[in-house]
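Here is one chain, start to finish.
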Amino acid sequence: MNFKAKIPGGFRRFAALLAVVALTVSLAGCSLVPGSGKASKAAKEQERFDAFTEEIFRSEISMNIINLHFTLAHPENYGIDDYEVSLGDFSAQEDQESYDLLRDYIKNLKGFDYELLTEDQKLSYDIFLTYAQDALEQEGFRLYESYLTPTTGMQSYIPTLLAEYKFYREKDVKDYLKILELLPSYFEDLAAFAREQSEAGFFMPDFSVDKVVDQCRQFMEDPENHYLIDSFNLRLEETDFLDEKQKAAYREDNVRFMKECVFPAFTSLIETLEDLKGSASNERGLEAYEKGREYYSMLVRESTGSSKSVEEIEDLLINQFDSDMRRLMELSMEDDTAFDRMEECPVDLSDPYQVLNQLKTDIVADFPDNGNLPFEINYVPESMEEYTNPAYYILPPIDDLENNIIYINRTHLTESIEDFATLAHEGFPGHLFQTTYFYGKKPADIRKLFSFSGYSEGWGTYAEVYAYRLSGTDDTVTEMNELNKSYTFILYCLADIGINYEGWTLEDTVSFFQTLGIPEDAATEVFEMMVEEPALYLSYYLGYLEFTELREKARETLGDAFNLKEFHTFLLDIGPAQFEIIGERMEDWMEKQQ
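Its structure:
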């Protein structure tokens, strides 16, 4: 997965933690004759658009210290010298201010003369306007949002980000300690939001409470030898701008804030959740809430970046399921040993650095050059393993592309081909490759505020499927692994839609999976996951399908002129966006290829 979070602060639905980026805004795209009156007018409009978007970027990114730090290593180079160390809040007032700001942004955008903008600016404009209009539709659904889910909740994200909070200068150390000091009030805001949800009938089911509480307790299991203390000390030792006396003082401060602020914040959150346990009005999916189907549709749009309706997506999934199943059966009949060989991986997986470096070499035939940026592999702390994904990539600051970190969860290692595919998803040609390639193009700052999970996670899934052919398995096993990946995602996505849009109960979900030979305990786990994280798996799989649809359309249209490397370059150049906008730009790209 691509590590980002819902940290409120300012325009909460607009500023996305560790958000991915866009194309460079440049005056070079203007085709008007230099010196003409129209050219002068265009240049002024382009300059005005740049000023407008840059001001939004600086303002929004400064509203949350974690967003700021993980997006910019050196904010002073972007004119951000004075900022408040804040984590934002979850209040109704801030929520309303966010939507009022959205309306202002839309109004200001529509005040530009679109035809005078460069092509790159038009792309930024289209993405910005569409994003803002989509986000505005969610006004009034504040209490439907979840900030304490077992997989992507704040109780999980914040410790992970704190462990990776890099110290570029002494102010970063002070900011980090200030964050620790703010955690009690921040977690109290979380607790207040949970109480508000409980009173309105939107509080999480008991099975989710149990998981979040357990996660918080695991975080505090060994306070004297905590990984946040160890990681802080290690980062402190690596600095060259502090003397030993300063380091010793900061170490003491960190331990004190951990004991006086961090652990009490988690303890207080546990108490609130246990007190609210049993108050859920609904232990099913979003469909059970008033306007739940409407909210789910908006969530699918936000999560996937696809313009397809839920009904269209479901039809697509069912057709793909039937096609995958038929082909799987055909292949298994042709080779009755293939099923038994699917998990085998000819690649030596003992050294993930070696695997990733080999992948980096093997993809050059079908993907553009991306230099030789370094990366680091870390392992998920033991206290967080149970509720953490198999692996994730933490996006680097846009001005520090050498700071690439992939986390691996040891408890999910299987020594099978899936470990290989996971490394491809997070590394090459997945998140690390896509992110550093695009950041390296020095994109316009404004699109760094947007989050398009359908693009990023869809690309990660696309990278996984592509990687099977690099594993050394024979053609039959390779295709079966590709089909099995698709088949598995389809089951999750159909369950997601069934639970959150069609109103499946736990019994319905168990029945659906049992017809496919999947046991009740596994079906129950899927049910709970889809209730807790609606539309999450759709971002991975529908994003992947959108990419494959674009590829097949380009292949069909261009015929012999189609080149896979050029197609991948187009996708990576255009960057994260809604898929209908990518599709529109691909029409222009295909005309140039013919």
